[in-house]
Design brief:
Blueprint: H1 10-34, H2 38-42, H3 53-72, H4 86-101, E1 115-120, E2 123-128, H5 129-154, H6 161-164
Antiparallel strand pairs: 1-2
Length: 174
């Protein structure tokens, strides 16, 4: 049996979003324990020319909800980029997960043969669906999820690889 576009996208994205939410819980706990204003973490960045944590989470959310919506042929919800707190970022993640989980798998039937057209900056680009998912959506999403993790780790939040891959814990007997 072949791997469907749904199976190649939604479950992994949901797992990683749930891990990101758990990492944000650990960030909130860290801020409380160290008596740090949580906004310090929300606005933290790895380098001056990089987006802060809040924007990394927003872009990760946008990447998967827009990408999956295009593959399924449905409209993606629009979320304003106004999150300034850890609870607001967690709520955005929860809304993204709810959207992904609410898409019927049948909407992906034939998606591997579709063409996806979208605007990237000022340019209209067209991708075969497989290229779109595996070479645009997934790398973009994982870049921003990883950068979110790195920002928090760099700022002293006690997280590790097991937190990043938390969705795989059942396979490791945890």
């Amino acid at each position: 049996m072949s791997l469907s576009m749904y199976e190649a996208s939604v479950p992994g994205f949901v797992n990683m979003l749930n891990s990101l939410s758990t990492i944000l819980d650990k960030a909130a706990t860290h801020a409380e324990a160290k008596k740090i204003d949580p906004s310090v973490l929300v606005t933290a960045r790895l380098a001056a020319d990089m987006h802060p944590l809040s924007r990394q989470v927003q872009i990760a959310s946008d990447a998967v909800k827009g990408g999956v919506a295009r593959l399924a042929g449905v409209e993606a919800p629009s979320f304003p980029d106004t999150e300034t707190t850890i609870p607001e970022l967690k709520e955005r993640i929860a809304k993204t997960v709810a959207f992904l989980n609410g898409i019927d798998k049948a909407m992906f039937d034939g998606a591997e043969d579709r063409t996806v057209a979208m605007k990237v900056g000022p340019n209209e680009v067209t991708f075969p669906a497989k290229v779109f998912l595996f070479e645009f959506v997934a790398p973009n999403f994982y870049f921003h999820a990883t950068t979110s993790y790195a920002i928090l780790r760099h700022n002293g939040v006690e997280i590790g690889k097991q937190d990043f891959l938390a969705g795989l814990a059942p396979y490791f007997g945890r």
